[in-house]
């Protein structure tokens, strides 16, 4: 499954979410990660994020396609440098 | 086609992008819009956003699926109030 995660959390949780997601997905924009996940990895991420969200009254959306072939990605411009340096 | 637009633009362009996208898509998170578009609407949005990005060295990603049936959306938490009030 190919997953896109977008999140809006209080500033004190931003790094925590970023460092956690970086273990599984690619950081592509300020609050956006994407990449291939197994079902088990996805469930693990979701349960961890749920704990964070409960503490931070944030908001997370996950867009999932069974196979990346169903997804077309268009890009305009380039990601900010802190993203490319973090990779 | 179902489209998810995520954007990272300089602060002076944020409202411009938001007001523009609101004409076509649903605002679901801080810098995230989603919704159904025709090919013509999508092309119109992209050419407009390209002009904004050239001025603001921002970054936009568009995730497109031909049909929403290929997409599963999971949500944790609730969007911030300024989003629900803006709707």
UniProtKB/TrEMBL annotation, chains A, B:
Superkingdom of this protein's organism: Archaea
Keywords assigned by UniProt, alphabetized: Antiviral defense, Endonuclease, Hydrolase, Magnesium, Metal-binding, Nuclease
EC code: 3.1.-.-
Keyword Nuclease among record annotations: yes
One GO MF term attached to the UniProt entry: hydrolase activity
A GO BP annotation: maintenance of CRISPR repeat elements
InterPro entries documented for this protein: CRISPR_associated_Cas2 (IPR021127), Virulence_VapD/CRISPR_Cas2 (IPR019199)
Pfam families: CRISPR_Cas2
Cofactor(s) the protein requires to work: Mg(2+)
Top-level EC class: hydrolase
Positions bound to Mg(2+): 8
Function statement: CRISPR (clustered regularly interspaced short palindromic repeat), is an adaptive immune system that provides protection against mobile genetic elements (viruses, transposable elements and conjugative plasmids). CRISPR clusters contain sequences complementary to antecedent mobile elements and target invading nucleic acids. CRISPR clusters are transcribed and processed into CRISPR RNA (crRNA). Functions as a ssRNA-specific endoribonuclease. Involved in the integration of spacer DNA into the CRISPR cassette.
PANTHER family: CRISPR-ASSOCIATED ENDORIBONUCLEASE CAS2 (PTHR34405:SF1)
Quaternary organization: Homodimer, forms a heterotetramer with a Cas1 homodimer.
Similarity annotation: Belongs to the CRISPR-associated endoribonuclease Cas2 protein family.
Protein name: CRISPR-associated endoribonuclease Cas2
Organism expressing this protein natively: Methanolapillus ohkumae
């Amino acid at each position: 499954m190919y997953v896109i995660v977008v999140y809006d959390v209080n500033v004190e949780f931003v790094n925590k979410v970023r460092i956690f997601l970086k273990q599984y997905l690619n950081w592509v924009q300020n609050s956006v990660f994407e990449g291939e996940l197994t079902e088990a990895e996805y469930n693990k991420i979701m349960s961890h994020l749920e704990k964070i969200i409960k503490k931070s009254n944030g908001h997370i959306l996950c867009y999932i396609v069974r196979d990346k072939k169903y997804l077309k990605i268009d890009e305009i411009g380039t990601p900010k440098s802190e993203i490319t340096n973090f990779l």
